[in-house]
Amino acid sequence: MEAPAREPDYEAVVVGAGFGGIGAGVELRRAGIDDFLIVDKNTDVGGTWHVNTYPGVAADTPSIYYSFSYERPRQMSRLFSPGAEVQQYARQVVDRYGLRPHLRLATSVTEARWDDRNSLWHLMFDDGNRVTTRYFISAVGALDIPRLPDIDGLDSYGGKVVHTARWDHDFDYTGKRIAVIGTGSSALQVIPELAEHAERLTVFQRRGIWVLPKRDRPLSPATKRVLELPVLRRMIRTALAGASDLALLGIALYHRRIPRLIDAYRAASERFFRRELTDRPELVERLLPNYSPGCKRSSVSDRYLRAFTRDNVELVTSSITKIVDAGIQTADGTLHPADVVVCATGFRLMEKGCTPSFPVYGRAGENLHEFWDRSGFQAYQGVSIPRFPNMFLITGPYGVAAASLIAMVECTARHAARAIGTARRRGLRTVEVRQRAHDRYLALCRTRAPRTFWLTPHCADSNTYYVNYQGEAAVMRPTTHMSMWWGNKHFPLRDYSFTH
């Protein structure tokens, strides 16, 4: 007689305790599941908001929208929350929804492997332990592995080297000659802060960045009281979601039909550049990008451009050739002295073998990284993949369709919880997206994605993360926010196979 199937240690294990993992935990509890674990390599919750603590770090989405619809931030001092407040909000949700007992922090997953005979997953940890789980939810996020620039001499540089995602708060940056490599989203925030304390700040720019005014401001007590009204909060969130849809659809999908939208974006940004740099007009052309607006995520700041007008700040557009102990050498032969090198160079987003950061093996030992490398990034509704049963992604490929990542987390986490809850109610152990349903969704995305603005010549020099190493625009779902919300909430259950 065949031995009975093994029972798992946990009904579900969520990998990642950022907002993706937190949102998944909330939805599991709402589905009546309390036997689950949330694992994270960091020592606290918050994900990218735990590791990104550089000076000036803040949300670039309004606080009222950068939150779960069911839980308003209690600590909201500004229109755009500082990073510390965003992480405090993560802790708030964890405590409010009873997730603290489910956490296992300072623990890295090194492998996930499907056990077909027992219909469960084996997860290996870096401490040598392993657990089994019926359902495996990957919520590791995309902003997980810092990208360091490939520059000769960086590894042997005798001064201080720090990445913005690994900020050293014990080091005193005051009065130092600081070099910042990169002019992306993190540089946009850290440069104005460093400029106020450095003896000399040298910014090395390979590509400019389009910037619009942020118009950030403190929230008055009266404003905070008004924003506590549920009806008003819903109205504002709906309006912001609509604005996000307009930008996504207007620029990404319908750029040929309404080119004036991009023209208006360009004109508004150029006016802002000229207004901020009135006393240094020669900087305008040097800071303006050589690619079109809309190729990258919109960037907002009230301080970035003005930082370059300071006497102690220098913009360098000549390419870096090498780093020596004395500083940074550029192609024009100049040596730029530096005591500290700050790498504001982002993350390894949707690169080969990076998401998740550990190997995942599905049916017949199928390696997820190899499958994506061979067949392109793909997932039904950004959540499920054939041959990887009982596994769900939080905002996987083609799974993001709005400015607020937390809003997207909420959509995909509910999708996963609905599929898991249905299997449990039916007394079944395995749920797997059907190949036909997956392929139908993938065909929709791959039909629309090549027509997106990011794959036009306008964005050829932008190095946008919307386009991966395979040349596909597989990050964003080429539909509206409303379509994503509806698709994840009301997907046909027949799109999944539920079995013993």
Overview of the structural elements:
This protein has 500 residues and is α/β, with parallel strands linked by helices. The chain has helices spanning 19-30, 48-51, 83-96, 185-195, 221-227, 230-253, 259-276, 282-287, 304-307, 368-375, 405-425, 435-448, 481-489, and strands at residues 10-15, 36-39, 103-104, 109-115, 120-125, 130-138, 160-163, 177-181, 200-204, 211-212, 299-300, 313-316, 320-324, 327-330, 335-337, 340-343, 360-361, 391-393, 430-433, 496-499. Strands 1, 2, 3, 4, 5, 6, 17 and 18 form an eight-stranded mixed sheet that branches. A five-stranded parallel sheet has the order 7-16-8-9-12. A three-stranded antiparallel sheet has the order 13-14-15, with no helix packed on it. α4 links the parallel β8 and β9 (200-204). α1 packs parallel to α11 (405-425) and α11 (405-425) packs parallel to α13. The longest helix has 24 residues, at 230-253. The protein starts with 9 loop residues before the first strand and ends with a strand. It holds the Pfam family Pyr_redox_3.
Topology, element by element:
Elements: E1 10-15, H1 19-30, E2 36-39, H2 48-51, H3 83-96, E3 103-104, E4 109-115, E5 120-125, E6 130-138, E7 160-163, E8 177-181, H4 185-195, E9 200-204, E10 211-212, H5 221-227, H6 230-253, H7 259-276, H8 282-287, E11 299-300, H9 304-307, E12 313-316, E13 320-324, E14 327-330, E15 335-337, E16 340-343, E17 360-361, H10 368-375, E18 391-393, H11 405-425, E19 430-433, H12 435-448, H13 481-489, E20 496-499
Parallel strand pairs: 1-2, 1-6, 2-3, 4-17, 6-18, 7-16, 8-9, 8-16, 9-12, 10-11
Antiparallel strand pairs: 4-5, 5-6, 13-14, 14-15, 19-20
